[in-house]
Amino acid sequence: MKIGFYQFVPEFGNVDKNIDTMVEAVKSADADLVVFPELATSGYLFLDPKEVEATASAVPGPMSDAFLKAAVETDTAVVVGFPEKADGVFYNSALIATHDGKVQVYRKNHLFNEEKLFFKPGNLGFPTFDVKGVKVGVLICFDHMFPEAARTLALDGVQIVCHPANLVLPGFAQITSCCRALENGVFWILANRHGTEDRKGRSLSYSGLSRIVDNRGNVIAQAGAADTGFYGVEIDPAKAFDKKVAPMADLFADRRPELYNKITK
Ligand code: ACM
Asked: Could you identify the atom of ligand 1 that is nearest to the CA of residue 111?
């Protein structure tokens, strides 16, 4: 299975252009699974809820139709971060469009900083998705700082974690991508953006360095801090079923859940 990410600079507010850029990237990737950054259709640095409303998409709708068409035509599963409008509120979501004609959504559970001014926290739990017989989960950016989130997906049998991100804290996700992959024995695709958004006196810079990590915590593909492009690698996702790190040491069987969760507050 060939998995990958596309690192780029979404143009703030230019949803049509961003979708076109990503659809072209899917077409040229020649991969089974391509992950794009968080809020990749809209940009990240919102200053006013009206900007969220102006750039948000409902699913199904024209945005998901465009990605679904590309997914089916190219036999590729696509994961894309976008602002979602659902039932009159907004979520920081990821679309999962699969080659078999399905569109599904994950809604970010751990909102970061000022995102709380614009979005509701996720209400769908940690769903999983089938990509050609491989179980895939999605976490969005700040979700990576909560080991319980990745653990929940892994205990549910997820083999690949897709991690759309807009990273503004230096180096943290490069650490956690290796840790979460290693401690759970899963593959990890961190799809970050790069560039700087300057908006009315506010500025945020994004750190790039998207990467793919294998089920033992090794980086097997990595973009530079300011690279635009697709990066892909062949993996054997069945390796994620092997939780043994030594003949008598098993990441899952050796857990002691009876000792955990004693401190609840
Ligand atoms: C983040 O969650 N976008 C830092």
From this structure: 2
